[in-house]
Amino acid sequence: MSAEEFVIPPAPRPALIVEGSSKRFPVRRLYCIGRNYAAHAIEMGHDPDREPPFFFQKNPDNIRTDGIFPMPAISEDVQYEVEMVVALKSGGHNIPIEQANDCIFGYGLGLDMTRRDLQAEMKKMGRPWEIGKAFEHSAPMGPVVPFDQIGHLSSGEISLSINGVTVQTGDLAQMIWKTPEIISVLSRYFTLCAGDVIMTGTPAGVGPIQAGDQMRASLAGVEDLTIQVTDGI
């Protein structure tokens, strides 16, 4: 449909930078898996055993790719969570685990920024997490690297430093639910499609940030992602 067919101008479609290309990866939906590293589950007060995976969503337009994270309003405890990002080139319903990797376009780095105090309030009241997770600019992301350049990532160090000090470190091999399993299980609940992006969970070490901090995320095989924290807008 053309813009003239809408009663108001349609919003631009969010997109990720693609490493080595002038083209962009258009984002359809943004899924996240919770507590997917045992050590992080423990630090958040949960049993690290392999419980059934659970998912939540951020909004696609929460993604920001310019290396800036403006501090949000109405929170006294904004925290970082470094994660591997998986971008899908195809999808389906009830995808078998052995076919899940065929859906992957590439991999990248992202931060699941969280208003932890607001999330905690929602947990206490048994309410959804969106107010703590799906706020503006809450998903800073770097470029997607096509899998045919780096292979499928199932192991390798992932880490985050704040102002040069390492605060999170882990290995993709420590994920409780591996990427093919995440895709397969997620496809039971939603019909996955090309353009869907999945954040695969964070290792232990989450904590607060403040304006002026610089975050630097690293993942073996992917270019580092540097994010500057600024005052809110």
Keywords:
233 residues, alpha+beta, Fumarylacetoacetate hydrolase, domain 2, six-stranded mixed β-sheet, five-stranded mixed β-sheet, 33% strand, globular, Fumarylacetoacetase_C_sf, metal-binding, Fumarylacetoacetase, Fumarylacetoacetase-like_C
- Number of distinct beta strands: 18
Low-pLDDT segments: none
Give the strand content.
25-35%
What shape does the CA trace take?
globular
Name of the CATH superfamily: Fumarylacetoacetase-like, C-terminal domain
* Annotated CATH topology: Fumarylacetoacetate hydrolase, domain 2
Q: Overall mean pLDDT score?
A: 94
Number of helices: 6
Largest sheet: 6 strands, mixed
Element-by-element helix/strand order: EEEHEEEEEHEEHHEEHEEHEEEE
Write the CATH architecture name.
Alpha-Beta Complex
| Class from secondary-structure proportions | alpha+beta
Kindly provide the name of the CATH class: Alpha Beta
The domain count comes to 1
The whole-angstrom Rg is: 17 Å
Keywords: Metal-binding
InterPro entries: Fumarylacetoacetase-like_C, Fumarylacetoacetase_C_sf
Pfam family, one: FAA_hydrolase
Organism: Amylibacter marinus
